[in-house]
């Protein structure tokens, strides 16, 4: 009889009773994998928290699984990416294991307002912005609208996600080439394509939508004017629920490969 991923998950859950979030030390789950999760575990351990890892079946031998105090398989049959986008499954597992905090890391569900909302509804603290803020900033078209309303200069682009090829062609004529296609609900270089000629637009829109869907669980993309050899300057700002806000000064992230940062230089 085959030992399926679904059966393995069911056995793992059946073998351990549900844990109350009030039992023992505070428990933090990293809703991510690999070095991202390991760094989260390191910080949590320094704060005397108990760490909880999740992993897809394909990641059962991944190092992060063995760096946590506990580890549980999720997303049976959903694949090595889909498992980490399974909001219902992750929140259910966190609730069953008595998790107090869930840290999304970056990528996957880190900018997903529905995940933050589901965590809060389950009584689990989401280590990140409130759902309403994620809806404003996680959706890049909403962020563009917010910047525009605040008087911040933005590049010519679409005010809402592009849903059809026909819409993409129409908007591209208004923006002009070269332009860039970007995932509306993600980052990290995924779901991005530079379009230099009109004949390539429809194909690259399809590619970007497919990659965005696989990486973030949402195929929405938008178009924006492309600026070759642009300077990429960031100012990191941190704030907490008590009203404390600080910035970490500026950094230059212009050196990139495939729209992903290779080196960050500070000060810029």
From TrEMBL:
The Gene Ontology terms for molecular function here are: ATP binding; metal ion binding; pyruvate carboxylase activity
Q: In its keyword annotation, does this UniProt entry include Mitochondrion?
A: no
Give UniProt keywords alphabetically.
ATP-binding, Ligase, Nucleotide-binding
The UniProt record lists the Biotin carboxylation domain at 24-268
Q: Which Pfam families match?
A: Biotin_carb_N, CPSase_L_D2
What the entry lists under InterPro entries is as follows: ATP-grasp, BC-like_N, Biotin_carboxylation_dom, CPAse_ATP-bd, PCB-like, PreATP-grasp_dom_sf
Q: Name one GO cellular component term.
A: cytoplasm
ATP-grasp domain: from which residue to which, for each copy? 144-245
Task: Give the UniProt record's GO annotations in the biological process aspect.
Answer: gluconeogenesis
**Record's protein name:** ATP-grasp domain-containing protein
Q: Which species is listed as the source?
A: marine metagenome
């Amino acid at each position: 009889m085959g030992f399926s991923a679904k059966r393995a998950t069911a056995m793992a859950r059946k073998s351990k009773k549900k844990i109350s979030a009030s039992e023992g030390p505070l428990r933090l789950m990293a809703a991510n994998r690999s070095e991202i999760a390991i760094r989260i575990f390191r910080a949590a351990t320094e704060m005397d928290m108990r760490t909880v890892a999740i992993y897809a079946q394909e990641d059962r031998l991944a190092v992060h699984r063995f760096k946590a105090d506990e580890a549980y398989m999720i997303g049976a049959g959903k694949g090595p990416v889909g498992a980490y986008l399974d909001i219902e499954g992750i929140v259910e597992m966190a609730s069953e294991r008595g998790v107090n905090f869930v840290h999304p890391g970056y990528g996957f569900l880190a900018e997903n307002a529905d995940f933050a909302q589901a965590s809060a509804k389950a009584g689990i603290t989401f280590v990140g912005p409130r759902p309403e803020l994620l809806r404003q900033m996680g959706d890049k078209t909403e962020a563009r609208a917010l910047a525009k309303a605040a008087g911040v200069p933005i590049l010519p682009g679409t005010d809402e996600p592009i849903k059809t090829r026909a819409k993409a062609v129409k908007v591209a004529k208004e923006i002009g080439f070269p332009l860039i296609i970007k995932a509306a609900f993600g980052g990290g270089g995924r779901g991005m394509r530079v379009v230099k000629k009109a004949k390539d637009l429809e194909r690259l829109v399809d590619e970007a939508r497919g990659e965005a869907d696989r990486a973030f669980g949402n195929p929405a993309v938008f178009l924006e004017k492309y600026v070759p050899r642009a300077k990429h300057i960031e100012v990191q700002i941190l704030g907490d629920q008590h009203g404390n806000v600080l910035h970490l000064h500026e950094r230059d992230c212009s050196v990139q490969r495939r729209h992903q940062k290779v080196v960050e230089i500070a000060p810029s």
